[in-house]
Design goal:
By secondary structure, the chain is α/β, with parallel strands linked by helices. It has eight helices and 17 strands. Helix 1 crosses helix 3. The termini are far apart.
Length: 301
């Protein structure tokens, strides 16, 4: 790759993200893979740093590896979501930088020196790995990356053997899909997630010819009304803030993807008011379980 500018994430407009920069966030379908950039191949980078400590150091290390010596690093994060730690983390790589505060963010601008401390360690610590606790591949930054989250666990406890063709919207590393595919009556399962890292992990975890993998925004999928079932543990945070519209959009999308008589199995936090959306989109809605702050519902189209 010729030297150029890269962008990671979607910085607020107040920081003037560079036009024409190559997007490298795994949360933007179709973006370039940051880890695949050749060392020293990039002139400049603007990074909207993720909130997780291990994930953030991993991203910073990959960017610093890709930057040429003398290249410009511009990184920012909300003060309460990693911004207050940027100084210490950049110092840990041996960088000198200018730090400013703007729009409830911390911002640091640095020039990449010839040598960087701790790159390999940070890249390894934040990279994909196999976890014995879940018997699966995953990576920091993926939702519930090192466990089966309580909502999915509740859904697994009540999910029947499904049949026919279906989809897993927001599949993560594949915990739900792995269970669904134990049913021999399932003929096809489409795993969809916005996070490329999740899709790559799921692909490694599920070696089954019935499975297909789609790095995509589930809200933008075609509605062909040809599926027998959909399973979903939809997100309800966007950029760290609760956004109920995400789950509501998943419900509407599932209804459009299902054939008449098709079924949606969904789990959500108890306080999220999805029943109205479900009732509007489906012929029959049944509460199945309510425990530990989560609820499982079945909806038939």
């Amino acid at each position: 790759m010729t030297r150029s500018a890269i962008l990671y994430g979607r910085p607020p407009a107040v920081f003037d993200p560079p036009a024409g920069a190559i997007q490298t966030s795994p949360l933007v379908p179709g973006s370039a893979a940051l880890e695949a950039l050749a060392p020293g191949s990039i002139d400049s980078a603007m990074i909207y740093a993720p909130p997780g400590v291990v994930e953030r150091r991993h991203v910073l290390a990959l960017v610093l590896r890709a930057l040429r010596p003398g290249g410009r690093l511009d990184v920012m994060a909300p003060k309460d979501k990693g911004g207050s730690r940027l100084r210490k983390e950049l110092q840990g790589f041996g960088l000198t930088f200018e730090e400013t505060a703007k729009a409830h963010h911390r911002r640091a601008i640095a020039v990449r020196p010839e040598t960087i401390e701790g790159l390999d360690q940070a890249i390894t610590e934040g990279g994909p790995r196999r976890l014995d606790a879940i018997d699966a591949w995953s990576q920091p930054g993926v939702f519930a990356w090192d466990r089966v989250d309580p909502g999915s666990a509740l859904l697994l406890d009540h999910l029947p053997d499904l049949s026919g063709a279906g989809a897993d919207l927001g599949c993560g590393w594949g915990a739900l899909a792995r269970a669904v595919l134990t049913s021999p009556q399932v003929t096809a399962l489409r795993l969809v997630d916005l996070d490329r890292r999740a899709i790559e992990a799921a692909r490694r975890n599920i070696e089954d010819g019935r499975a297909a993998f789609d790095w995509a925004d589930a809200r933008l999928l075609a509605e062909d009304a040809d599926l027998d079932f959909v399973i979903a543990n939809p997100p309800f945070h966007d950029g760290g803030a609760e956004d109920r519209r995400l789950g509501q959009a998943f419900i509407r999308k599932a209804a459009g993807m299902l054939k008449p008589g098709g079924v949606l199995w969904i789990v959500a936090n108890r306080h999220l008011p999805y029943e109205k959306e479900l009732t509007a989109a489906f012929k029959r809605v049944r509460p199945v379980a309510d425990a530990g702050g989560y609820k499982v519902l079945e909806a038939v189209k």
